[in-house]
Amino acid sequence: MGSPERFPEEKGTMERLTERFATLWAENRRLTGLVKQWAEVESSTAWALAQRLSRWRRRLAPEGSWRQVCLRFLFHSLRPWRYARTAPQSPCVNQEKLPSSQALRENRAAAPAAPRDKIRIAYIGSRLSVDTMTIMRYRAHNLIEALPLAGLEGTFVPQEEIYLHLPRILAHDLIVLVRRMRNDAVTTLIGLARRQGLPIVYDIDDYIFDPWILPYVEAFHHEQDKTKALRLMDELGACLDQCDYFTGSTPYLAEKAAALGKDSFVIRNGLNSVQVSLSQSAREQRRLRRNDSGARIGYFSGTRTHQADFRVVYPALMRLLHEQRSTRLVIVGHLDIDAFPGLAPFADQIDLLPICHWHELPALIASVDINIIPLEPTPFNEGKSNLKYYEAGLVETPSIASPTRILCDSITPGRNGLLARNTEEWYHGLKELIAQPDWRRQMGRNALEHVLQNYTPVVIATEAAAVYRQILQLHRSRHLVSKQILNIVLLAADAQGEQDEFLSWANEWAAAGHAVTVLLSCSEISDSALGLKKFLAQRFIEPLFTVQHGGEVPHCDVLIATDKSSRELARIYSHRARLTIADDELLSLMQKIGRGREALLWDWLQKMPRAA
What we know:
Number of strands: 17
Shape: globular
Largest sheet: 6 strands, parallel
């Protein structure tokens, strides 16, 4: 490893370049998102209707004609009515000028109260990561669209804009963190929400919040990714630890979160109205299409994490493609086909298609006769939802799948799909579906019936609304029950440099409800308490902990010296604390333990004798 020491000029240049790159990267992701949003608009039914109306208008009132003059006069007469309505606020916000803590408090107080007859849920997710787009669609946007059908209202706020919209977020009744990792912005939001008595829900649809699951996640098998993967899982789990409740897409995920002490609920993944409409069109096109050239087997891989899953069905596919030369295999998405040399002799029977936009997926699934969902039997795959089953069922394509719990619950073998536990079952199941087209078509119709009964927006809205109402009722019944809290004091010479990590600890503990004081013996970055307050506001926007600038160490449960210059002070005042941490060994242990720091403090305190 290289030394962390750098010349001041080099360090300053690197910091400026890093900051500039981060700004440019965020802008690039924002513009990419706008391009994709515009593409979605252009592919929508409303856009097609608007284009058709525009063509009709040009045909009925050509440029320069008297009809066009009459039409313009009519529109001008309606303009005062149009502008009389309140104009919406511009979405363009200068992200470089963040609001101060005082401004946030004033805005929060001035925020209009939500109508009490409608529960409002704020979903905090990400808009920058390409890998999380599908996750955000199923765990946030689809629910936001569906909730009004059950009398609720949902709002999506990107994590990158938490500080800009704190008052608006805190005006909701319930906050859902969708697949979020622990960081200063999320921790601050959790702390402020907890002070207002708002329930905080952690939501995820993958079993990646326990680090022990790492060996079963194929995406993290590369040597260089393991350290990063462990940190990612630890931070996901740490964010879950900070929340009050858990919602997941499968009962398996809910059980794993419940084992960590969380009140857990299941909200299944479901469809949105665009998916339903596009799938209906795909079904109609499918019925018009005549396929006399043999069966088409579809594997929709999506991400780069399914090599091991495909090996489950690989031997059966080799045998089938060899025996039935009219059968075709369609692979959509990321799959390293070179890792399966047994398929090379059948290259002329295999269609490799790139990953596609979700608007194009219904038509692609409808173009195949059989959908395969092979999954390696691992704890990670047990947590996966059944979206590949119901996306195929919505276009009347039957599925044959590995028997995870959620797929066993969804598929009744022989009626709306098949289950395969080994190579022989995969081979015979696929062979029967190929040989009996009428049977598989009936199976597809049964799958459609099952999907429409269980995964449409109105069904998912009803399920989600029941869960959110139950969480609110449970939270209100517990809100008056006092939680045992710790009084924690952190000693530091200043609030920057090596102490930056300890300030994050202070914010996390305060967000958990503990009384935390950061005592600064001196501050090189500010000559006054006002300057110190400004620095902390830039760092946390609204710190959840108390800052004491100089003075004596107060009585507390835990006293932590975060640097060498404050250790002597900690030893002098150790009689004022039940537990004093003032050596490198204990601090190093707390840094390494990650998400278990609060539990570690409780453990140490329980082992110490209480003074009489």
